[in-house]
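Recap quiz, item 2
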Amino acid sequence: MRIGELAERTGTTTRTLRYYESRGLLSARRTGNGYRAYGEDDVRLLRQIRLLQDFGFELEQTRPFVECLRAGHPAGDSCPASLEVYRAKLAELDACIAGLQAVREQVGAQLARAELEAGEAEPRCELSPGPGRAADQLSGSPAE
Amino acid sequence: MRIGELAERTGTTTRTLRYYESRGLLSARRTGNGYRAYGEDDVRLLRQIRLLQDFGFELEQTRPFVECLRAGHPAGDSCPASLEVYRAKLAELDACIAGLQAVREQVGAQLARAELEAGEAEPRCELSPGPGRAADQLSGSPAE
DNA sequence: GCTGGCCTTGACGTCAGGGTCAAGGTCTAC
DNA sequence: GTAGACCTTGACCCTGACGTCAAGGCCAGC
């Protein structure tokens, strides 16, 4: 099949397929007129790449899977190198999630504090809050 | 103070400060020779920007905080627009964390399956795992 | 007056993953 | 025999937040 059909069958674009080829992830035979020619193997290979891309893998990280398939293995993750990428990705995801959760807490704390200060500067409720709050009355902005 | 000192005091670079100026986040008076001149207000403003940047805010998202400080408020988050950015960021963080956790689960499942298949194709342990419970025998990574 | 350090503007490079054109070759159907 | 769909390579554009020159102005110290 030619590049347009392969792109359609794998839900991508011809530009993307040429880009993958330029990165060495995909290769194509050429027909007499110079057109790229692909087979079913390339469909499987691309589905593998797209799956990993959907998971957020960088293109380079899909390379072991591609090479595994090319080597004739039944699945892209049948090789140790692919499993290592899985594990590294899991570690990366865990670190990323932990980092984001830490930021989330800090931003949440900032928001809570800012809302509190806004509420104190401009009290809306009838109840008078207890003492110890005069130091925060900063809203009288100095002139410029 | 001049740009080099400001960069040093705020832990950034002169290139970054000029970039912020080009984005309209920072402005500078000029001395007779054309050098940029900054004051303490700019230090506070930059500290605000860098704090948010450390939290992963995009530069554009720091603009309300900057404008709030410029308007004379005591803190960058003293204005409603800044609080809205906080809230939007929290929602964004939550969505991002949830998405990453979902991916983490899927990648984890892929790894478990691939390890299982690798183990079946090349059985290493003496025990023959019975059907149905083999999935739990994975913790002692088979290969390597 | 000379060296070294700081400053200026402007322009290009980076990273990933492509999008979009341009100019042209090829093939099929009518 | 020609329109239109497909293919080719090559080249530039995009995002974000800067890094890295290049070429030159300004200033302090010796």
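Chain B touches chain A through 36 residues (CB under 8 Å).
Chain B has five helices and two strands.
End of item.
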